[in-house]
TrEMBL record:
Tagged with keyword Metal-binding: yes
UniProt gene name: guaB_2
CDD domains found in the cross-reference section: CBS_pair_IMPDH, IMPDH
PROSITE patterns: CBS (PS51371), IMP_DH_GMP_RED (PS00487)
Organism: Paenibacillus allorhizoplanae
EC number: 1.1.1.205
SMART domains: IMPDH (SM01240)
Protein name per UniProt: Inosine-5'-monophosphate dehydrogenase
Amino acid sequence: MATYYMEPSRTFSEFLLIPNLTTKACTPANVKLKTPLVKFNKGEEPAISLNIPFSSAVMQAVSDDGMAIALARSGGISFIFGSQSIEEQAQMVRKVKGYKAGFVVSRSNLKPEQSLSDVLALKEETGHSTVAITDDGTANGKLLGIVTGRDYRKSRDPLDRAISEFMTPFEKLIYGKSGISLSEANNLIWDHKLNCLPIVDDNGNLDTLVFRKDYDEHKENPMELLDKNKSYIVGAGINTKDYTERVPALVEAGVDILVIDSSDGYSEWQHETVQYVKQNFDVKIGAGNVVDREGFRYLVESGADFIKVGIGGGSICITREQKGIGRGQASSVMEVVEARDEYFRETGTYIPICSDGGIVHDYHVTLALAMGADFVMLGRYFARFDESPTRKLKVGNNFVKEYWGEGSNRARNWQRYDTGGKSKLLFEEGVDSYVPYAGSLQENLDKTLGKIKSTMCNCGSLTLDELKANARIALVSATSLVEGGAHDVILKESSLSEEG
Ligand code: IMP
């Protein structure tokens, strides 16, 4: 006979936090959001912690190298999507690991025999006014000179004038040698009143450029998530099919942590994948998704370093409609947290839990953390920002960004190309959609973090451990949900919520 669970499963929107005493020490500035990313034994430090409890979803429309750099800069982590070829994914990981904040690969490059009209056309196309002149016109060719707006007069100089005649030649350039630190580069910039410092290797080839403005930007990110070599920490999604080829390539590219990306992780396939990784590599791996204690226990005993929770709650997800599997996100988190705490008492090993999907309002993040999740994973939230890899479009009077599920035909197309059309999707588990464009990641994240810290102060908590231990969470009735928003008034347009 089937087992019945007659208590309805719950979502975050059905709960509210009850304030605790706010002491005078409880100010948002004093709140710390550091949280473990991987398992650790009692009394020890986790090998990797996040500075903010945020990760971006393993999705084509969310987590590429650009998002990974932006989020690591703010203290969180991206898991680069695995629904692409192994080489492309490894290349994205390599770009994140090779990225040195403040050192940028030159994006505007020309050859000395090209002309002023080429400079102007490139400026029009890229918006950059600094052009590197290299022997072969590439970003890493031999550096022969630099052209900036100060080297020509657009109104007077003939358009066919060769660049070699008006560029600042290499002999007159101030430059740094590869390996220079950002602060040394910055000193050269200030001492010589430069806007841009080229960095050149021992053979005279252009390595990167350092711009004056980037140093200031870099200094503003004290939360950034760095490994011991001062590179950004990055994760990557894997699957349970091609892992014997994908994992070695990702490890070789320098990935810090893997996660198995699946809507249902309670499977022998995941057990085998985790075991393979643990037996062959010194790299961390998360597994999931699960929604109950049995799934949690199974994957932890397989060796997983963190567990991802959630089936069917994602904004683009139609798994519940299509397959009839899933569980309310809050109920899933609560049960898995209970199992995690039980496991900790038994073994002394703490397993971080990631609440994945279904975050609609910022306070849902606070609730997930208060319920015991260590960090959250979001897709829709990050898809709205400049840094997500998708197109920004105008629909009617509003700007939107594209956002599609990994289980949609759109995301699965890469596989069909790979397998010559043999693995056609039988049915979709995700939709293709738009989300409202919301601007830059940093600006939005600052606002969200501000709200979380402020709520934590309401709950008398300065750390996430205190929040977990002290939170008082109340289930609310369907009718009281109505009084939670503005009600019985006619809203003026300016006071309508901006939240996506
Ligand atoms: P969101 O933050 O609510 O948009 O949810 C993002 C999460 O939805 C991801 O991290 C995945 O766990 C899940 N997801 C991504 N693509 C699909 C899909 O096509 N079907 C079902 N779930 C998906």
